[in-house]
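Teaching note: in complex prediction, the entire set of molecules is handled at once rather than each chain in isolation. The prompt given to students was simply: 'Predict the structure of this complex.' The entities are:
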Amino acid sequence: MRAMRWVIGAAVLLVGCGGTPDRDRVIQLHVLVWKANNPHAWDEALRRFHAAHPGIRVVLEEGPNSSTQLHDLLAQKLRNRDTSLDAFLMDVVWPPEFAAAGWTLPLDNRFSEEDRSRFFPGCMSAVTYEGAIHGVPFFTDSGVLYYRRDLLAARGFDPPRTWNELVEQAGKLGARWGFSGQFRQYEGLVCNMLEFVHAHGGDLMHPSSPVAVEAVRFVRDRIIGTLAPRGVLTYQEQESLDLFKSGGAAFLRSWPYAWTILEDPAHSEVAGRVGIARLPAFEGGRSVSTLGGWSFGIHRHSRHPDEAWAFVRFMTGPEMQRHFAIRVGKAPARRELYADPAVLEANPHFAELRPVFETATPRPRSPIYPRISHILQRYFHQALSDPESAIEELARTAEEQIEGEMARIAAAE
Amino acid sequence: MDDPRRLGQVLLLPALLLIGLLLLLPIASTVITSLHIDTPFAPKRFVGLQNYAQLRDDPVARGTIEFTILFVTVSVALEILLGLIFALFIHHRFRGRGLVRASVLVPWAIPTVVAAVMWKYMLNDQYGFINLLLHGGHIESYRAYLADPGGARFAIILADVWKTSSFAALLILAGLQAIPDELYEAARVDGAGPIRTFFFITLPLLRPAILVALLFRIMDAFRVFDLVYVMTQGAPGGATQVLQFFGYQKMFPEQQFGYGSAVSVVVFIIVAIFSLLTVRLLGSRIFEESS
Amino acid sequence: MMPALCNRILRRSGFVLGLVILLLFSLGPFLWILVTSLKSPAQIAARPPELWPAFDFTFFRTVFAQHSFARYALNSLVVATCTTAAAITLGTLAAYPLARLRVRFRRTLLALVLMASMFPQVAIVGGIYRMLSAAGLLNTYPGLILPYTALTLPLAIWILVSFFREIPPELEEAALVDGCGPLAALGRIILPVSAPAVFTAAILVFIYAWNEFFFALLITTDPAVQTLPVGIAKFPGEYEIPWGDLAAAAVVATAPLVAMVLGLQRRIIRGLTAGAVKG
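The expected output is the structure of the full assembly:
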């Protein structure tokens, strides 16, 4: 009870004395982000920002972590020109949509050319639409292959360079399943399938091309139900990680975030026995990895664009990107940090991943990407979940639907 | 005579104002939007019934309507059946009846979102309770029920039936308790067995209660959303896509407000038709002037 | 004598068996979530799943410490209670004239009210959002209470109207003859008699407001105002679904309702029985 009184007294004192002298000249910025896994890292970031910018007070509004739900929320606010919103986080596929809708503030005049060159080119092109820059990259992400180092070493295998090699190896490694990935009907399915389709020489906007169809057939016949349990058709990141980290699968396709969890003995049964590598290619082709990540955008109708820019600049600056890389394990979008000793010490796998980030492949960049994604999700999931599915037909339908949507948007609807 | 009239209008005003402003106005706005193309990429454009034509020709929409009708038919039938069985059970006098009745109400009290997460967890193919129940410790036979179209549809129907049978049970129980005991006495005296009593006395007299349960359940089943949103998102491949979810997808992720509004209007029309039909059977006494 | 006794025993055991199945069906999933919430973190991903928990309260602690759950619970309580109060008050005031007094367009109004509740709610979110935004009510309690009241009024009115109608008019007439105005008649005669129906309507409204998810998700982004279902939706971490935390959250979100239902089941049933469903 005594302690409580001290705490309350201290709080009152702090509140009384700690307020800024010019209360009415403090500008409040509202920034919409997802709920952080590591709130301390964000609190620290805000603390430093407030110290450096005493005239600005940032209020973080929390949305759900699900990218889809955050998109719904954000779109709602931006459509309604909610002037109380100043800045927000954008998933890597949103900038074209937001830019075409006139929701984001073009940043060309504030974001110097010199600074732009410090970021990964893939990240920069993701925030560029019709020649203008609409966001600043915050984190980057791309698909990688995790493998059981111990199981491969026991058979003298090197990490597989091609998918056929992986299939062969998986059969001899002794884990219950060979492969784990995300094949539920959601955005992650498009990410996974992009890697197969592009590696096979196709592209997502033309699903009915023979190479694209073959890639899907490969996944349906050689992976789902054979190498990986049928359950992967219901897995998102967490379930697929669960299978791998409990020792149930020899290979896992996932994102770099999983490394920290896999190496933590408190959470993972395979800690210390995991390797990370590029995804396999198909014979004669190259390895493809889907580009992910988040960037900051500023609301076109914000009442405080300059202050919002100060905040965005701060959060995406080298100091903060290093801070998040070390504290939270997020892969920075600035290339120079991959040579930074502190960052590498906290995340040794970043060194190997840098080339993957440099060449990661983006999803189709279009204002109507959500519609395209839905079409692709339905197509892929239908094709993969039915062992007898007529892939060519489904692919043709999907391509027609995509063309239909593109035609509609071209005619300015 | 004018006074009660005026008073009546005054009393009605607040409620009607709120409903008018926050319900009827948005509904009207949605209906109007359904006649336009409304996306963030171009100014709003009037197109008459084009969205409805697009809906008619959209194969995905057709599949959605098919499953929605299947879902409503099977779910509601099961809910009424189970509701009837539950009601018959808790109608009897026995010790601990209160506790049993309360237990029957629990599924209804749980937030739908929570229930959907619960079911998703139970149907998990690695550590789900359903798999434990059906296959015990043999984890090799564990199946991913939500990965197959049939399994996913079954799961959605099961989750919905679980959640709302208790509501149907309550309404039917009300009807059961309204049946006078003398009728049962008379039947017993006449030598009728329990089965005959049920079919010739109980069931006919339960008709109004069953029909009310039917009305409410049909109205709600056509608008099922939370379950699909949390459990399957319409997967696999659109097998569990329902109308309200389809409308939501068009409106929010895809930002096609005109098209999405048209879907909602269609849902409304379907619900209204079914409700009117049910009310016809039930008798429209509710809407009549009072004595 | 023997066959009849056998018959009795068979019927009894059949009955008990049926009861057990009924209980397992209704309570099973909830019990499983309760068990899950009481497991230790190590037990959660066990394959096959373990049936008996370690009675570890880690997840409950996490839920309240890390996820500001107490705040969400408070918000849900405030919003649900206010919605119920508003819906019952306005609903009663509206149901009385619709059931008793001669009001113009009574049938149309009733039909309109019922139709309003048939429209898919997903579609009207946009319109309501715009209005609340213009009125500056986003991220406030009234921003949720007002739409919820509007959404539950039709149901409340419908229940109350059908119940009021069953009350014999002689009761009021006696009061009116004695010199009571219609409002006093409403307060002193009608309301006490229709307590069960009012009660039922209140419960239905409360449960609706407590469980509502989609509107709350879109209208509130400030954790200080968000309700339990939104809190639960925010649970899944960026790539993790903490089943243990979720289970504990589910128990917390549901326990008040379950307790309410357990305690008040007789009243609820009486309310639905008495009058609302007379053929």
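Point out the following to students. Confidence is low (pLDDT under 50) at residues 6-23 of chain A. The first helix of chain A runs from residue 2 to 18.
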